[in-house]
Amino acid sequence: MNDLVEVPNSELRMRRSTTAEQIKRLILTSGLRAGDPIPTETELCQELGVSRSSVREAIRRLATLDIVEVRHGHGTVVGQMSLAPLVETLVFRGVLSPGDDLAALREVVDMRCALDMALSDRVVSVHKGKNNPTLLDLVDRMLAHAEAERPFLIEDRQFHNELLLPVGNQLAVQLVTAFWDIHTAVLPKLDLALPSDLRQTAKAHGDLYRSAQQGDAEAYRRAVVDHYEPLLRMLRVKSRP
Amino acid sequence: MNDLVEVPNSELRMRRSTTAEQIKRLILTSGLRAGDPIPTETELCQELGVSRSSVREAIRRLATLDIVEVRHGHGTVVGQMSLAPLVETLVFRGVLSPGDDLAALREVVDMRCALDMALSDRVVSVHKGKNNPTLLDLVDRMLAHAEAERPFLIEDRQFHNELLLPVGNQLAVQLVTAFWDIHTAVLPKLDLALPSDLRQTAKAHGDLYRSAQQGDAEAYRRAVVDHYEPLLRMLRVKSRP
DNA sequence: CTTCATTTGTTCGTATGTATC
DNA sequence: CGATACATACGAACAAATGAA
């Protein structure tokens, strides 16, 4: 009965899951870069031969991955391909807390620490003997905020960003920043008392930069451990009731 | 004519960007886990008070992030929240090669190496003195394939997976696997001769496991460097014409 | 094996909000 | 201010896949 039905299925399968793929290929073959505009929805409908809704869902998919960026009333441009999707996925996994209490968050902090350790030699070598006013200023502001008993999330995030920027690996910077985002997004959603060792945390950042500037890799790695140790200890305690 | 339409605008604004958020909240408040079914599209339309198209686009977004998984003709279930979105984003960034030749791929391989180095102590400690038949078998098969001049991607991927599994950090395993996927997906799409030092690569894997088993962290780290060195060298050469 | 209900996939038409000129 | 182009949203209809009766 259905012997004669020639590949109606695979035909659809080829298209269904690949409307987004076709748009990606179009971006590649057109040599577009981040920020360049891509064809409008109606143009894509004609070029790809699919309906408006399909194009919209495909664009939604690509926008979710930050491969394109939709600007309401203006158009769609090629995106920055950031790690935003990674952040959203892992934040949700963290707040879902799959039975194992805090395991997801602990793994995120664990990886932050591991990344900092892995990059320690390079961080130290690029900052050795140099003076970075931005980092010095950030450390000062963190110390001031700590004295005033106020948090300093913005400075914290920017500090880690600036510290890794000169190593020359964009992906590394983005990964560290992404895990920072995940960490700070998940932590408040779980109703546990924040450590709030503000002074200790601010001081740890100062130690990080100072040891890097002095070219002391061992001291830098000790500062990394000090930086995460209170938080990791709290997570371990909380997760073993 | 439309004077009676009360606040259609702000109402829409509130909902527009949060249809996906509402579904996420529904998953959380319902205490659903990976694999559990979520309401059907029509049910979500009623519960959230939006059209089917909006629900579909929201679900598409969540499916892209692997927060849900859609099964045609069956329904939608909570997803695994894997790192698939990270892989797709970075693969595309890799093949887009933004002017800087091979820089994206080089950074990915660089991060693979950094992750392996960061986890070296833990890998060595969990394998020290133990016998893992799976890893031994994988090394044997890689050596056999190398002798027969055939690639062994499947064994390679599984080797790194098995090697890191016992460290107890799911995220670390997934990150390493994700970067492996990105690396092997991007490399063939750039038309450059693969190194194809099959024997050397197979031998490097044997060295990795052997040094871990013997508890020699220094030897393990040397094996990591040997494992990536040919590829990194090729990338550096190719990118500086 | 067939039939049927359920669910997702695709398409079309229409109306509305939004940004640019 | 209007005009145009674009994205956003909704609803209805039909196609395709799945699973159970």
Rounded to the nearest angstrom, the distance between the terminal CA atoms of chain A is 62 Å
Low-confidence stretches of chain A: 1-17
Can you list the strand order of the major beta sheet of chain A?
Answer: 1-2
Question: Considering DSSP H and I runs of 4 or more, what fraction of the residues of chain A is helical?
Answer: 55-70%
Give the C-alpha Rg of chain A: 23 Å
**Largest interface, per-chain counts?**
A-B, 44 and 44 residues
Supply the helix-strand structural class of chain A: mainly alpha
SSE arrangement of chain A, N to C: HHHHEEHHHHHHHH
- The total beta strand count of chain A reads 2
Shape of chain A: elongated
Mean pLDDT of chain A: 86
What's the oligomerization state? homodimer
Number of helices of chain A: 12
Sheet with most strands of chain A: 2 strands, antiparallel
Task: Provide the β-strand percentage band of chain A.
Answer: under 5%
Primary descriptors:
homodimer, 12 helices, mainly alpha, elongated, two-stranded antiparallel ribbon, DNA-binding, 68% helix
What does this structure look like?
The structure is a homodimer. The first copy, chain A, has about 240 residues and is mostly helical. In chain A, about 70% of the residues lie in helices and about 5% in strands. Chain A is built from 12 helices and 2 strands; from the N terminus they run ααααββαααααααα. Chain A has helices at about 10-15, 20-30, 40-50, 50-65, 85-95, 105-120, 120-125, 135-145, 155-165, 170-190, 200-215, 215-240, and strands at about 70, 75-80. A two-stranded antiparallel ribbon of chain A has the order 1-2. In chain A, β1 and β2 (about 75-80) form a beta hairpin. In chain A, α6 packs antiparallel against α12 (about 215-240). The radius of gyration of chain A is 23 Å and the shape is elongated. The N and C termini of chain A lie far apart (about 60 Å). The relative contact order of chain A is 0.11. Mean pLDDT of chain A is about 85; it is low at about 1-15. The interface between A and B is large, with 44 and 44 residues. Chain B binds a DNA duplex (21 and 21 nucleotides) through α1 and α4.
